[in-house]
Amino acid sequence: MKSIATIGLLILSNIFMTLAWYGHLKFSELKGFQKLGLVAIIFISWGIALFEYFFQVPANRIGFKENGGPFSLVQLKVIQEVITLVVFTIFTLIAFKNETLKWNHIVGFIFLVLAVYFIFKK
After folding, report:
1. What band does 112 get if pLDDT is binned at 50, 70 and 90?
2. Domain residues of the chain, as ranges?
3. Which of 7, 33, 43, 59 is most buried, judging by how many CB atoms fall within 10 Å of its CB?
4. Do residues 80 and 52 lie in contact, with contact meaning Cβ atoms separated by under 8 Å?
5. pLDDT(23) > 90
6. Residue 22 class from Cβ within 10 Å (0-12 exposed, 13-18 middle, 19+ buried)?
């Protein structure tokens, strides 16, 4: 159960992280956001990123072996990175229609999945 909770929280965390880091690139398309300066965009992104921490910190505390969770520190990091790339890819394909998924991206993702396999191999 802790592994499911950890992964679920990491997914939520990465949704907010992706919105904070890359969502602002679409702000110019939103009414009222076109004229915002960089400082305003930074503060808006920072406010969104705050919610990332509401999910990331508990995910790591719940999932970490030394806190009674099922994952080592390295396993947590690899899980988080793979989730980040999956969330980012989905976000990019939905929000940025001019971006395409190419064969080299798929090969890279395959290698990341292989990395997860080897990190978890005993």
Report:
1. confident
2. 2-120
3. 59
4. no
5. no
6. middle
Tell me the two tokens of residue 37: 């300066």
* DSSP per-residue codes, 1-64: -HHHHHHHHHHHHHHHHHHHHHGGGGGGGSTTTTT--HHHHHHHHHHHHHHHHHHHHHHHHHHB
pLDDT at 65 over 90: yes
C-beta atoms surrounding 111 within 10 Å: 9
Tell me the whole-structure pTM to 2 decimals.
0.84
Three-state DSSP class for residue 114: helix
Chain centroid to Cα 29, Å, comes to 23
CB neighbour list of residue 84: distance below 8 Å, 6 or more residues apart: 14, 17, 18
